[in-house]
Amino acid sequence: MRTLAPTEAGNASRSSDAPQTTLRVAVAGATGYAGRELLCLLARHPWTRVVRLMSSGRHEKKEFPIEHSHPMLRGKFDVLCEPLSPEALVPAEVDLVFLATPHQTALELVPSLLERNIRVIDLSAAFRLKDASIYPRWYGFEHHAHQALEEAVYGLTELNAAEVRQARLVANPGCYATSVILGLAPLLKMGWVDLSAGIISDSKSGASGAGRAPSDKLHFVEVNENCRAYGLFNHRHVPEMLQALGLEERGFIFTPHLLPITRGILSTIYVRLAKPRSAEEVAALYHDFYSQAPLVRVLGTVLPEIQSVAYTNYTDIGFSLDRDGQRMIIVSALDNLGKGAAGQAVQNMNLMFGFEEETALT
Amino acid sequence: MRTLAPTEAGNASRSSDAPQTTLRVAVAGATGYAGRELLCLLARHPWTRVVRLMSSGRHEKKEFPIEHSHPMLRGKFDVLCEPLSPEALVPAEVDLVFLATPHQTALELVPSLLERNIRVIDLSAAFRLKDASIYPRWYGFEHHAHQALEEAVYGLTELNAAEVRQARLVANPGCYATSVILGLAPLLKMGWVDLSAGIISDSKSGASGAGRAPSDKLHFVEVNENCRAYGLFNHRHVPEMLQALGLEERGFIFTPHLLPITRGILSTIYVRLAKPRSAEEVAALYHDFYSQAPLVRVLGTVLPEIQSVAYTNYTDIGFSLDRDGQRMIIVSALDNLGKGAAGQAVQNMNLMFGFEEETALT
Amino acid sequence: MRTLAPTEAGNASRSSDAPQTTLRVAVAGATGYAGRELLCLLARHPWTRVVRLMSSGRHEKKEFPIEHSHPMLRGKFDVLCEPLSPEALVPAEVDLVFLATPHQTALELVPSLLERNIRVIDLSAAFRLKDASIYPRWYGFEHHAHQALEEAVYGLTELNAAEVRQARLVANPGCYATSVILGLAPLLKMGWVDLSAGIISDSKSGASGAGRAPSDKLHFVEVNENCRAYGLFNHRHVPEMLQALGLEERGFIFTPHLLPITRGILSTIYVRLAKPRSAEEVAALYHDFYSQAPLVRVLGTVLPEIQSVAYTNYTDIGFSLDRDGQRMIIVSALDNLGKGAAGQAVQNMNLMFGFEEETALT
Amino acid sequence: MRTLAPTEAGNASRSSDAPQTTLRVAVAGATGYAGRELLCLLARHPWTRVVRLMSSGRHEKKEFPIEHSHPMLRGKFDVLCEPLSPEALVPAEVDLVFLATPHQTALELVPSLLERNIRVIDLSAAFRLKDASIYPRWYGFEHHAHQALEEAVYGLTELNAAEVRQARLVANPGCYATSVILGLAPLLKMGWVDLSAGIISDSKSGASGAGRAPSDKLHFVEVNENCRAYGLFNHRHVPEMLQALGLEERGFIFTPHLLPITRGILSTIYVRLAKPRSAEEVAALYHDFYSQAPLVRVLGTVLPEIQSVAYTNYTDIGFSLDRDGQRMIIVSALDNLGKGAAGQAVQNMNLMFGFEEETALT
To answer: What ipTM score was computed for the predicted complex, to two decimals?
Structure first.
């Protein structure tokens, strides 16, 4: 990687201790909702320049202005969006590739990118699970890129900052997974939870989390004025939650629901503490745990709500303790496209390339 | 047609002066939103029995319970939904067929149904325009069923009740068209409008009016928190409005907009009166014109809103006159699936078969 | 009560085995959302006539047409809405009073209505809890109407039909409570649940459940594109759930959430079965338990969603069992204004006065 | 005013040609929606520091953290929000005051602020209309601050940039007015419109435009799944549109509608051109007119939609010409809180204090 200098296309920001050249990034899968959000964030990032936009869609055959796909990006990018062409992603042109493609597309692309020594942040699930053997059950495909899988760092920044900084390949966590893991990590790392009682996360997500491909289930009329549970006992984000939190499948239930909103996830998480705690103790634990995390806001016994985090890259966490001091409900909220996808990807990029962690994110 | 007797499957209603046998109806295109609404209305109609449900979709190959398509109809119909099979629609079994299919499917089906002497209410546009030669421009297909077209009655019940009663084929009006025609008819029939000033209808519709087929444009995320105009100067409902109202294309502008709601149309209609009128005069005209119309509610200078008509079969009409007594805004509201589609279809059925006009509709 | 004859104002329904005179009902609290829904249902009930409409609001000083408050009821009722005047509710004029007022208004009204021998269906919580001593904790007021409280029947029709038939005073259940109780009752009545594991209901409701009084929290902008939990460990519907299900407070958690929709509740309920069961066994239990309940639809392992019950009086119940046959999630859905309030009130009325249980409700 | 230097609290932006000290701003009316948006923008503005937050509400008696009112601003401002105290706004502490208060509060405050030589950007309508005598008709109060009114510059930046740069008092335009004026200005300034035909703007706005005070009409349930017209022939934004565009009241109709969305305005504007024009000519006119306007995006015959401008400070403008080249529909879209209020206020500030026009706005 070259030294970095501030972008001219970006805003006029400059900082004396900033890197000397601009980071050249490519986005593959630019036409989806995560791609869109990523571009919004990159457009205001002072140290990056988007040099390549690629669509993984089957339909596009030719280059097109990205505003055809995302009208709100009108005038933000000069570079046209082109069909996915991995061979164009070469170190002479690109320092970092974001993959916002289907899982299997990412699975195919990553090894060759690493071989060419291009760093990758993969927003798909292709490199999230350390145990390759469970991909068939949860994702329906065999995983043969074992070496890349071993190298991949699970990019939940608040937990894995040191590894992320060194990573060539970051597996960006799932949106639901981020909300649940951040909500539970402090308690579990401290061993405060009575695991025998089981942990339940009842999570609710806006429709952008389901992606942009049209389907019966995502028709406006089907989502509007509705709420439904789905994926009971078998949602794909479960194994990455178990892996990150060190839980057993039989001690954890995750139930996702579809909300009639565009952006945001609210997770209501039920645990039993091993021994009674006061609200002050719990609040102190969370504040302490996230004291260095600029994108996690600990609210104590104030409960987060989706509106406070929508269109942001924050995760808000609050909780309520029953009078017995043991039954506890944690509520965590984030924007599934922000901290749950593109925001976290940029946060990972910031660490990987030595920028301030929250650059372009607050 | 046989004499009619009350249905046992329906609610327990009975009336001494009611027909003696039950009307046997078939619904082709039962899996769409208009089909769903039609089934909801027929389920509570005391004098009809749904004997046949057909899907015009390409996907369905086998019979299936209609609740697979419309969970809210669970337990309402015994008859399974089958792939479209016109040959099954025979007078020995069916008295009336509702077509809620694509235009061209209706175009193909209607002549043979009429030949078999089965009455038809067609919710598509295939038989709405008297001038066959304009179909290519507005609908993109040639219209060769001239005889059926000639026979068809435009089923805007409030204007054409007498013809509807005798009709074998009713062309059920478009949803936007109904809202605009009912809003303007009293003024135009009385010649009160200064046509040289032009008439503008700025109309807004919920997303169920665009049908159930998934598409990029109807994805929840694209419709939610949005509003957009479309079809400027060339929406397909324009020619039926011109035809019903006796207007010239150059004297009329119709602009549809997509609202982030499921059901309902609001039309804001701008006219200039040929001479000054008082609000009382105008209100009297509308009240008078619709005095025999049980499904039109004239609100005078109270303005209608979508919520008051959603999930009903009413059209609400109100207006505002400027201080000059000549500039006038008419606001009309209806449910695009109710009076704008299925409700009007049932209203037409009621007239055709001698039931009370508003049976099952209020 | 006089014998009952079919209403002339209603639809033309009549039935030879029907009561001989019309039930004269009054609605106090007619201007709220539950009152509105009640009026919609009563308008299509063939055996009732609304003889009195009263508003419990502080603002109204004079009579007004109910359509001023509910435009969708335009033309449905001749009787004007008047300020609350209990003395006008006399047996010579009224057979049944629905109270859709604040709790304390109901608390004051009920004893005198019973004294006058007028039957009452109370949609407030004033007579739901058998133990008067817990009202201060949950509702903030002392309960002194002990005799009426003792007499009151908790009107969850599916559980208490026999008592409801004889009741002079029915306490209509809360909306959340109905969804949770109906979801759990079959399992709990059969003793299938491992109570030591605790039961959790994570419930989600549309905004009409919060009533019509404007407030910061119910402003469109605050509810739209949002979801939040509230009332953790202390929602008012908890004690009626405990009472109806025979549960202890420490073995049950109920967490309500506000959804950005108008109507509907979805409850996701987590239990652990005492021993492994198959999905077939569980489905059979539910089907059996609700075999005589026309307004409960058991979906087996199909999951309910809000859209299928919105604008209906049904409760839909489905479930999912984990592979261990013990961890179980029940999902129950209803319309908070339908089966969760006005629909259940009418269902209770139907039983109390010998009508078919589902009259006007399906 | 002191020289300006970059804020330390802001992001690290700095520019060699930037002013040398930080602009000290106060926001009065900080708890409403426009106040919130203003704070969001100021939080990312590199050259300003918010030194004073004041609430104009009647309820607040003490200081409180602004996040109590706007949870999404958690951690963004150290300064507490205090009750409105004009005497605290002194030149030694404050360079600029934003007023996002009720009209009459602004009317009272402005003269004394100007007297103290503090510059003001007033988001209310108190100083928008040059003719003091029409305030009673449109706003219901007498306007006695004639000198300030005379001095005030109507801050529609694209039309009045030169005056804004010199202004001590900027009257920030109304949200609807901005969308209509920007849509029509190019045509009217060039004299291309046949004024005798009349101009109609049918505009649609999200609910945040109606302010944050709770009311019956803004209850979630009343706005959701609804759309209604209001203020026919007498909306308060009409006179500022007439004034800015040089139109007569009798030649212009403006009809606002309430949409069930949080943010955004779409105006559909109907004009007749004095002589036929091609789409290319019209597009060229608009592109030319706005060639120096960084916050107006001319889309030509592509139609704007609300989603593309929500959460931005842009106005998007597109149009459609009928085949006759004379009937023309202009569609303009903006975010009522962005370019329609706070974004425009910041744009005005940028001009007044010599910053880049779009600082913090793109």
So the answer is: 0.94
